[in-house]
Design goal:
Length: 93
């Protein structure tokens, strides 16, 4: 049986240049650092691992709405600080 779940991610950009990604809907999920590209590269593997270990879901695919590139563009606008919320849809077997 294939299930579809939604995960809400909160992206934060701080005035010191660091980014934080966290999720209340995925216990234990938190990424933080100065390089948004590195955080985005780690996003799918970390989410997939947490879903497998915490909930027993084997992730078939992740689809981010909006895309990680759109998130990056939004966070790199001139505002110094900000919090943005995005949702991922995933198929889990």
């Amino acid at each position: 049986m294939v299930r579809e779940l939604s995960i809400v991610l909160h992206y934060e950009k701080h005035s010191d240049g660091r980014y934080r990604i966290r999720s209340e809907s995925l216990p234990g999920f938190r990424l933080e650092g100065p390089d948004i590209d590195a955080l985005q590269r780690d996003l799918n593997p970390v989410v997939s691992d947490l879903l497998l270990h915490n909930m027993g879901f084997e992730v078939e695919s992740l689809r981010w709405v909006p895309s990680p590139e759109d998130v990056k563009k939004h966070l790199q606008r001139p505002a110094l600080d900000g919090i943005v919320t995005y949702v991922a849809l995933l198929k889990a077997a």
